[in-house]
Amino acid sequence: MAYRVCFVCTGNICRSPMAESVLRARVAEAGLEDLVEVDSAGTGGWHEGDGADPRTVAVLEEHGYTGDHTARQFQASWFAGRDLVVALDSGHLKALRRLAPTEEDARKVRLLRSYDPTAADDLDVPDPYYGGLDGFQECLEMVEAASEGLLAAVREHLEGRAA
User: Is the dihedral of CA 51, 145, 136, 15 positive or negative?
Assistant: First the structure.
């Protein structure tokens, strides 16, 4: 059974699809695509059915990331099928923990930047939606900085399953 990771932001068109693309690339580079599944969703359904924001796509493509994306809203029932739910900011963290059907499910929720050993006290990835392209670039930098630590945590979980 695959280890399943879901990234969650507000509308699932900027931050979470960016994190999904980056982790999916790291998983492929590590040769773990048969063991790890990565997806994303939003806390709200405002953009359900839409593709990723064009600025997200542009920044990802500029840095060699690929992938198609269709926005959707995270559902409480999805906790059962996810091993880790990664929130992009503290608002998402709180919303997801409130949505969690059980305490065990609530413990699956983590902040992305908690996996970045160089992150300061502010673990939120700022929402770039209302800004310019530079905000999307900054978002990608934060996602990439956390991706190695996140991949290490996923590997640790996989090794624990094999033991």
Answer: positive
The residue annotated as part of the active site, out of 6, 14, 15, 24, is 15
Identify the sign of the CA torsion 155, 117, 140, 85: positive
Choice among 6, 9, 14, 139 that is catalytic: 9
Task: Establish whether 127 is a catalytic residue.
Answer: yes
Q: How far apart are CA 125 and CA 76, in angstroms?
A: 23
**Residue 38, both tokens:** 């990565």
Which of 4, 50, 72, 127 is labelled catalytic? 127
pLDDT tens, N- to C-terminus, the chain (163 residues): 899 999 999 999 999 999 999 999 999 999 999 999 999 999 999 999 999 999 999 999 999 998 899 999 999 999 999 999 999 999 999 999 999 999 999 999 999 999 999 998 999 999 999 999 999 999 999 999 999 999 999 999 999 877 6
Question: Does residue 116 sit in helix, strand or coil?
Answer: coil
